[in-house]
Amino acid sequence: MARIGLFGGTFNPVHNGHIHLAEEAVSELGLSKLILIPSNIPPHKEAGELCSCEDRVQMCRLAAEGKENFEVSLFEINQGGKSYSYYTVEHFSELYPDEEIFLLTGSDMLLSFEKWFRFEDILKKVTLAVVPREYDDSEQLVRKAEELSGFGKIKIISSRPYPVSSTEIRRRIRNGEKYSCYLPEKVVQYIRLKNLYI
Ligand code: ATP
Which atom of ligand 1 is found nearest the CA of 45? Predict the structure, then answer.
């Protein structure tokens, strides 16, 4: 049975922390396909600084370029409205009924997972695979995974965290600080070309 990873996010912009998570998941879980799924409107975030769907998709495509097994899906954007992972998981489990599906998230998302729309039903369909975001959250993660284990499978991937966020990158761009080391080179070029986040 092949294994597929679904990786949703705002990707505003996509950064090296996202790529780190995706690559760790591919190698730890042996994924044959990793699908980046930019959200249309994220349900839990302020939309103030959100750049267009086209720009976020394009940056994801640039970040995925040359990476075997990576693809970018327009599913959530084409659905429109707020993007709830439940519907994404439902869609991909119907599309790949014979594959084992993993929903990939950073550790911050595991800690608030019970607030997600129909989280119990998500865990009936996929294994939640979590990559640490910060250096100090491992015990908390294990506790949370145990709490949720009654609903389904949760796998914590033990990898070195790569602590960076899109918020921090946007702040740096706005303030004229260095930011290029946190992003794939082609994404840096795209942000400069389109004058994003200034
Ligand atoms: P923002 O700062 O705008 O809130 P973000 O950096 O958290 O954005 P998102 O696009 O919201 O990025 O995140 C998508 C997914 O990637 C989430 O599951 C999040 O936990 C995970 N993620 C983001 N940054 C990292 C990181 N540095 N390490 C591991 N996971 C990450």
Answer: 4
pLDDT (0 to 100) of residue 47:
63
Which of ligand 1's atoms lies nearest the C-alpha of 105?
18
**Domains of the chain (ranges, CATH numbers):** 3-163 (3.40.50.620)
Cα 9 to middle of ligand 1, angstroms: 7
User: How much is the pLDDT for 135?
Assistant: 75
| Cα(132) to centroid(ligand 1), Å | 11
* pLDDT in the model for residue 44: 77
For ligand 1, mutation pick of 165, 181, 183 (most atoms within 8 Å of CB): 165
Q: How many H-runs (helices) and E-runs (strands) does the chain carry? A: 9, 6
Distance in angstroms (rounded) separating the CA atoms of residues 51 and 64: 19
Q: Which residues pair with 103 in a beta bridge?
A: 6, 128
Query: Which has the closest alpha carbon to 101: 114, 115, 90?
Result: 90
- On whether the pTM is more than 0.90, the answer is yes
Cβ of 106 below 6 Å from ligand 1: yes
pLDDT digits (tens, 9 = 90+) for 15-61: 999 999 999 999 999 999 999 999 999 887 776 689 999 999 999 99
